[in-house]
Amino acid sequence: MNRPTRVLAQPLIRRHNLATALRIIWEIQEITRTQLAEAMGLSKPAITRIVGDLVQAGYVHETEVRPSSGRGRPSLYLGLRSRQHYFIGIDYRLDRLAIQARDFDGTLLHDHHYPIMNRASADQIIERLATYVRAVADEIGFMPSGIGVSIPASVTSDRAGIKSSSFEVLHNTPFASLLQKAVGPDCPTILLGDVAACAAIANWREIAPSTQGQLVHIQIGIGAGLGHASAEHPFGPPAPPINRFGHLPLERGGRQCKCGAYGCLNAVAGFDALTRYAAPTGLAVGDSSDAINDYCAALLDLHLAGNNDATVAIATAADWLGRGAAALINLVNPTSITLGGYPLALGDAFLVPFLAAIEPFAPGSDALYTATRLEDDASVFGAVLLGMNEVLSNPLGAVARGGAQ
């Protein structure tokens, strides 16, 4: 009776071991077979089989590294093979469409911003994105091994469909399967993530992959979103720590939010609120593909030139967001907080009053704020990591789909 169970379990054990080994090599970058065996608690013959599979699949190679003194025998280290597999990340927001392609070791192979498509139909959006993916694949020479999409949306638990989105035409769509079909038969698995969730994944990898803490990311533009990553969930938990973060009630009797309630975080700290506060400056939002950043740059210039209306507008939006962040800190108790969206374009003019607003409600929490070098590209890099995680979880699956070249 036990024999069938052992037969069925063997492929699962192999997949688990391959995924664990590849993830360790990906995290550490260079490691010996002996070190890998110790990390996994496996015998050297078992590691030999695992490494052989990963080498054959094109993920890993061995390189000689000589001692720094130049004396003694060189050691053989396992490392990731470059340009054998790469991954595409799509960051599609109301104000931005960016696509990156990165190698397994994070090397940037493609980075481009495209015209936004806010008036397009669902079919037009799918076909345009598919065209861009095929163009990137043609540029690099072969199809990616994984694709991630960062989008302002509530996605299904399998990260394949959209339940609701800031793009109303995408409500209740099997987005991943539609995009895969449009790209073509060689398209790899496509995974979706909310913009804030993708940014949290990327920022976590930048600042805290070896710690046991938890990071929350606040993404704010037209609306507000919340992402979360930790040692337990480096690619994000199944659900954010607080649902509907953008609808935290902050101002009694405040302006009505699109959700129908009054005084929500979105209504008092979102980009629309910032432009309302800055109305006395006379600035108007343009219609370029980078309209939000262009507006913030102009508003910041006015602030730096001593325009009090600009200063008050920035400080007011920052104060409201700081109050929302303080509530979040008290509820979730994170070890790090990162920001994304329009605040990054305003720099210290926003950050200083934002942190000052947190202090009265969560004393000492200003130290939690962390800036990463990714800045507002965190969400597109997080999308790349989503695509990469599909391969890290099932290395031979990508090869079976034709991912390795």
Automatic annotation (TrEMBL):
Gene3D superfamilies (alphabetical): 3.30.420.40, Winged helix-like DNA-binding domain superfamily/Winged helix DNA-binding domain (1.10.10.10)
Family designation: Belongs to the ROK (NagC/XylR) family.
TM helices/strands, residue ranges: none
Alphabetized SUPFAM superfamilies for the sequence: Actin-like ATPase domain, Winged helix' DNA-binding domain
Descriptive protein name: ROK family transcriptional regulator
Domain HTH marR-type: residue ranges: 21-61
InterPro entries: ArsR-like_HTH, ATPase_NBD, HTH_MarR-typ, ROK, WH-like_DNA-bd_sf, WH_DNA-bd_sf
